[in-house]
Structure formats: structure tokens, C-alpha cells
Amino acid sequence: MDNPKSSKRLGCNVDDITSKAIGDFGRWQLKVTVLMAMLKMPNAWYQLNIIFMAPPQDFWCEKPELFSQYSDEEWRKICTPLVEERPCFIFDPDMLSLNPRMSKALMPLVPCTKFVYNTTIFERTITSDWDLVCSKRIFIFIIQCTLMWGVLLGGIIFGVIADKYGRKIPLMAGIVIQSVASYVVSILPWFWAWLGVWFILALASGGIGIVSFVICMEAVGGKWRTSIPVLYQMPFGLGSTVMAILAYWLRDWRKLEFALATLSSLYIMYWFWVPESPRWLLATGQTKKALEVLKVAAKENNTEQNLNDTQDLLPKCEGIKEKGPGFIAFFKSKNMRLKTILLSLNWFFTGMAFYTFSQYLGLIADNIFFAVALSGVISLPGGILCVLIISKTGRKKTLWLFMVVTGACFIGIKLVPRYLFPNDWPRLLFAGIGFAGLGGMVPALYLYTGELFPTVGRNAGVGGVTIFARIAAMISPAVVGLDELVPDLPLIIVAITSIAQIFLIIPLPETKGYPLPDTLEQAEQFSNKKYKKQNQEVNEISE
Predict the structure, then answer these.
(1) Of 106, 158, 177, 504, which is most buried with the most CB atoms under 10 A?
(2) What is residue 430's predicted lDDT score, i.e. its pLDDT?
(3) CA atoms of 430 and 414, how far apart (whole Å)
(4) pLDDT score recorded for residue 540
(5) Contact assessment for residue 170 and residue 158, using Cβ atoms and an 8 Å cutoff
(6) If residue 59 lies in a helix (H) or strand (E), which one and from where to where?
């Protein structure tokens, strides 16, 4: 990211040039931001489709030929120990064949070698394809870890490439890789080969997420940099709803992956619609290319005269290339170290709540498709409410509100027993409101995080702390698995952590109404009220 302070000394203010030339928001910015926001849909497909690839599925040990005279139900009663809900071990079939009614008190248990799966809801899952049960159940955890490591590394790798070679090329590379890899994982029959391609798919998804967010932010200016980061996140919920509808229709994880790959391939058309970021072109001294993009944008926004008036400023941007601090630099000063640690913890708990709850949806009510689709739809109002609330009450109070609502809904689900009401509608209602809370919390936290880090290191700061949300996503399958030890224990954990996040926000400064810090030094002093007042007065005078 360019250093605005240095740029101003050299006569090049990228924000000032783009704002004067094409305005803060117009038809061109609307087109770019909508296109970038729609990329959140495939992000939802690939980060959440573990819900339908490995859903809760009943299974039992296959009946040997020796017991062909018994029905499946009779066989299950004969072979399964009463203490086991899902039979990883069964009574020795050879001994049972001698006398099925004999006392089992001293009969040894042996591992089941072949399983049968209930296909009433799902015709095929990765669980049934590769027998990911019992001792192999850990592989579902490995799949989720592989996905999140890929998303994490993809954000870093593609972010570096985007800073060096521009936004458009890595974005399109990610879209193509994501589409091709999704087709491949829908047909690969070998688990370890499939896991390798799954990792590549995750790399692309992580890259698309970070680059699209940067393009979105660099396209707009002024007050729109408050609302656009929030609205940008909203199609994520819509993506989960689309995925739930497809899963309900197809009932086969391979068919679902193929359908998602086909939808993802449509984004290749972005090559003809997405421009290079003019801010990046100006920041890297490529003024001729920047002018070409600005001409198109000015024509769409009807600001061609404004562009003509600012063209004389473009030569001053040639040769400018500033490098900001890395993520480690934020740990070298007292205030920024505290902010970075608190934000990292907030992102960890937010990520754990989001991904744990997403995977836990199958246990909330009988109809997993309706639960996921409803959660996606209800998350949209959460984003809209976030925009309305955050501009009036500030960042901290908005986060507190959504954290309390989310935690309360998790508790509500725990307090309402299953099967007590038709279709478990109170539990679904709490789940929907809880997702609306998460739908407001995540974009608000994105915005707040970006405002606490300085301009020269905002990409590094936001990228660094959001890594902890990916780490939390890796352990979310293990948290969901705790339900087998204590019913609804995952809900209790995410409820406590969601409400506890309030205390992690308290030491952080409010950013509403204050100028954003440009340098690391300004960010270090940002919590100082005298400093903020002085900078606010300077900002008002300059306006």
C-alpha cells in the first residue's frame, strides 16, 4: 500500500486525485463493488460446503452372509452393544453365528470392517464414499484444516502478488483455479489426491477473498468506505442459501460440487468487466494506464470535466513506490501491540462462533437444508442493520450489540429441547437471529479492524489478525464433535466466548468521527484523546 504522507510531500495524493476525477461513488464504483461482493457467494460455497459434504449421517455395520435370514433391524440389535449409538465395534460375528441369543457378557468386540449408511436424506457424502467414521472420523477435521490453511495461505500469497503485479491478474487467476479445481474435486475417487486439489481450491478461494476486498475498498472514497466494507460481506449469506437449495435438490456431494463448479466458472466473464485498480496504478507510478481506467470511470460517472481538471496532477505520481510495515511491526510498540492482540483474540472467537455454528446447524433441527437456507437469508438483515447502526452509535457499541444478541440466541437454542415444537421452530428462530447477529458482527469487525491499523500497513494488519479466524475454523469440527460428549456443549462454548468478546473490545478506542491514522506513529497514539482532537481540528480546517 502506498504511503499517503510521503505521497503528499511529492505532490501526489492518490485519494485526492481519484476522488476529484471520478467522485467517491458513482455508476462505475457501483458496478465494481457489486461485482466484487458477488464473489463472496463462491467463498461461502467452498468454506461452508463441509456442512453438506459430511453431514450428520446414521450408519451401521454391514450384515454378513451368515445372518442373511435376519432383517437389517434384527441384525443391528444382535450385533451392536447397547452403549454404542453408532457401532464402530460389534460383537464377534463368528461367535454370534453359533448362537445369536447367547449371553454377550463375555463375548469379545471386534472392529466393523464395512459400513452401511442411511441414504434417506443424502444419497452420497464424503463420509460414505471414504468411510470417514470411527477411527477415520479425524479426516473430516483434516479436510477442514486443509481448507482453512489454504484460505489463509491463499490470502497471503495472492495479496503479495496483487501488491506487486496488480489486482486484476491474480483475481482472475484465482477465479480460474477455483473453477477448475472444483470440477476436479467433484470427480476424483482417491482421497489423498482429492485432498491435494482441495487445498489448491482453498488457496484460490483465499486469494479471491483478499483481492476482491482490496479492489472494493480502493474503488470508493469518502463516507462510502464506512458502508461498503459492510455491504460487501452480505452476499456470503446468500451464497449459503443457494448452496442449501442445490444440496436439497441434488442430495449427492459430487453432484453438488459439480454444480458449484459450473456456477463458479461463470465468474471467468469478469475478465471483460473488472478494471485494474486506478489507485494501485497511481501508487505504482503507472500514470498512463491509470488515466485509461479513469477515463472509462469518468465517462460512466459523468465526471469527464473533473478528470480533465486533475490530469495535470498525474505526472507527480510517476516513480512513487512506498512500502509499508509488516505485521510484526505492530508488536513493537505498546498501544499497537495491545490493539493487535485484542483484535486477534476477537477474530479467533468470531471465527470459532461462525464456523462452529455453521457446522452445528445440522444438529439444531431435523431439516438441515431449511436451517442452512434460513440462516443465510436472515444474515442479510444483519448486514443492513449493521450499516444503519454503526454510522450512528459507533463501532464499539455496534459490536457489543451484535455480540450480546448472538450469545443470547445460542443460549436460547440450548434452553429449548429438540422435538418439543413442530419442526423445532423456536430453535430455528433462535438460529436465524443468531446468524443475523453474526451477519452484523463480522462486517463491523472488519471495518473496525481496518480503521485501527494505519494506512501504510492496513493490508498487513487486517490480513494478520484475520488469520486467527482461519485458525479457529480449523478447530471448529473438533468443537462440534464435543456434542457427542455433552449435548449442546458447542453451543455453550460459543455463547460464552461471544459474550466474553465484549470485554476484549472495551480497551480499544472508538474510531467513529475521528480521522484514520496514516502512519504507524499516528496509530500508536490513536487512543490518545488529545491527539485525536488535534487531528480532527486539522482535518476540519483542511476541508
Answers:
(1) 158
(2) 83
(3) 10
(4) 44
(5) yes
(6) strand 59-61
Of the candidates 261, 244, 280, 140, which has an alpha carbon nearest to the alpha carbon of residue 205? Answer: 261
Structure confidence at residue 10 as a pLDDT band (50, 70, 90): very low
pTM confidence score: 0.79
Q: Return the pLDDT at 518.
A: 62
pLDDT of residue 7: 40
User: Domain 1-54+130-321 classified CATH 1.20.1250.20?
Assistant: yes
- Torsion (CA) 423, 429, 431, 437 in degrees, nearest 10: 170
Q: What is the DSSP string of 80-137?
A: S-TT-SS-SEEE-HHHHHH-TTS--TTPPEEE-SSEEE--SS-SB-HHHHHT-SGGGT
pLDDT exceeds cutoff 80 at 13: no
For 61, list phi and psi in degrees, rounded to 5: -75, 140
Q: Matching CATH topology for 1-54+130-321 and 325-543?
A: yes
* Burial 407-433, CB ≥16 within 10 A → b, else e: bbbbbbbbebeeeeeeebebbbbbbbb
Give the pLDDT confidence of 525-538 residue by residue, as tens digits.
776 554 445 555 44
Given a cut of 90, whether residue 73 has pLDDT beyond it is no
| Residue that has been written with the C-alpha cell 475417487 in this structure | 189
Return d(Cα 437, Cα 421) in angstroms, integer. 24
What confidence score (pLDDT) does residue 363 get?
64
Only one residue has cell 489423498, namely 192
CA–chain centroid gap for 504, Å, is 21
Domain boundaries, the chain: 1-54+130-321, 59-117, 325-543
Fold classification of 325-543 is: Growth Hormone; Chain: A; (1.20.1250)
The Cα–Cα gap between 277 and 280 comes to: 5
Judged against a pLDDT cut of 60, whether residue 248 lies above it is answered with: yes
Q: Kindly list the distances between the CA atom of residue 542 and the CA atoms of 305, 505, 515, 528, in Å, as whole numbers in the listed order.
A: 24, 32, 12, 21
pLDDT at 4: 43
Using an 8 Å Cβ cutoff, are 158 and 210 in contact? yes
Quickly count: other Cβ atoms within 10 Å of residue 195's Cβ: 16
Any residues with CB less than 8 A from the CB of 269 and at least 6 apart, and which?
Answer: none
Work out the widest C-alpha separation in the chain, in whole angstroms: 96
How far is the C-alpha of 396 from the C-alpha of 451, rounded, in Å?
A: 12
The residue-averaged pLDDT of 349-359 equals 84
Nearest CA to 186 among 261, 94, 247?
Answer: 261
Query: What integer is the mean pLDDT of 300-316?
Result: 76
Q: H helices of 220-310, where?
A: 224-232, 235-250, 253-265, 278-283, 287-301, 304-310
Residue 542 has pLDDT above 50, yes or no: no
pLDDT at 154 over 60: yes
